[in-house]
Amino acid sequence: GKIPAGAVNDALCSTMDMLPTFAALAETQPPASKIDGHDIRAILLDSTGGTKSPWDDDGFFFYRMEQLQAVRAGDWKLYLPLEGRFANLQRKREPVKLALYDVRHDVGEEREVSAQHPEIVTRLTALAEKARADLGDVDRPGSGQREAGFIEKPMPLLP
Questions:
Q1: How much is the pTM?
Q2: For the structural domain made of 59-135, what CATH number should be given?
Q3: Calpha distance 42→7 (Å, rounded)
């Protein structure tokens, strides 16, 4: 299969999805250890644009440094209430209220709709708690938290 010319799909995807997708396209297995991302071949090869993102069910999490600040699932994005949201690399903190947006119909996130959709707030808050338990949050280690990878002595491998 190939991606049809002119195909459009607005399903949420991430660069984290590249490794599992390329592994599947190459008909090889991704690493046995846990990796981030999803195999998004179904989205890429869908000529109708109707395939939903795997992130719609699992939630896509917005972290700044180690702080969980928002979660998106499907058409909805929930900004979590924070006493002090990290605003920059100096860890300047600013308070943030809970806010829900329908990002399909309000791309600019101008109309806050949490009062009209308490069931969505409950669902996305539960996804955020699941992420905190797995990935962690400020001063809260997660059970699946992994150290960031780095190369001790980076150097070019080609002449």
A1: 0.82
A2: 3.30.1120.10
A3: 13
